[in-house]
Write a structure and sequence with these properties.
With about 375 residues, the chain is an alpha+beta fold. The protein is built from twelve helices and twelve strands. Helices cover about 40% and strands about 20% of the residues. The N and C termini lie far apart (about 50 Å).
Amino acid sequence: AAAVAAAPAGEKLHHGFWAVQQEHILLSEMKMVGSHAVPGIFVRGSLSSLYAWDGVIFVREGFYAEGVFKFRILIPPTYPDTEKPRIFFQSSVFHPRIDTMTGELDTCKYYKQWNPKNDRLWHLLKLVKRTFYKIDCTNPQNERAAMLHTQDIDAFQAEVRVCVERSKNDAFSQTSNSIRFHKMPTRDFEVCKDLIMKWNDSDRTSPLPLTSSKESLVSKLSPLSPLSSRRAAKEITVRNVAKQLAASRTMKKKEKMELLAHLKKALPDLVENNVEVELSNAGCKGNLSALCTESRNWINRWVVLNTADYSIRLYDEDKKLPVDGGKINVSDICNAFMPQQQEMVANNTFLVVTADQVLQFRARSKAAMLLWLESILHLLSHLHS
């Protein structure tokens, strides 16, 4: 009897040891990113989960020059076993190897199976960079992009330029990515740029010559540190990252989610005239049509976005019975967006992408769609900030 009673405690201890080991492995991998920094790419661990890394790439030449593309790396819970991590772009990217619907980068050509002995997460950053500098059209995820690249390079370049310009505008928009960009006054930007260029031309052995007032300006240029990304990344340690995660989780418990106040500020006219979505600081509720992946039919659902536990729950039309598999954790969402296809735009369709599924929702009006989308993005922003 004693042995039977002790078993659950032993399993709990084993699970706890496994969790600590996983955390150590992933934090060590993050430290490797600093030691093998890939120029043009910034990456940081999401403050909500060790199994999600947020990144952004600044493309400097080629078809995608001047593009600013955000992405997320989703790491499987069993890492570093043979299941490979996945890469989802949160910026709209017109590229042969990137799925137009989900934003997922196809890595099968390079990683058919993850090798724990040889493969490391920082290798994926090199693959992200290669994607934009060497266009590969074999087994395309976007057949139109591949066709234009091989048959009409001018048309391909025109589509890419639209994509690049959109990426620069979207860089300041709310997404699930924890890397934030803020517009700076031109004068402040020039001061920061001048300091960095002078430091870049020096021997780089000393820190940037910052005063306390200028340091706050320069820090806006980099999501990691007022130093260069390479220098900053090298200063990351397992202990520092662990402290950052613990502090962030503590703060999240103390912070209040002011969803309604945010919506009134972001979409004042829509909130004032809203009659379709029940809005409050606790979340939002309302009717949406959800596309059934099996029958491909649209089914009416009562949808509840809850700020208390960061979840989206789907119920039947009578608001009583929860739908099987109808709970979505906001922390699992890679992206939420309004697609570019005209038919979807006309039908007030928006997409919610997780690692396991692509959920398509239709609102009854464009105003309702925008309120839902802004609410989801605000929760994502709050969760990952």
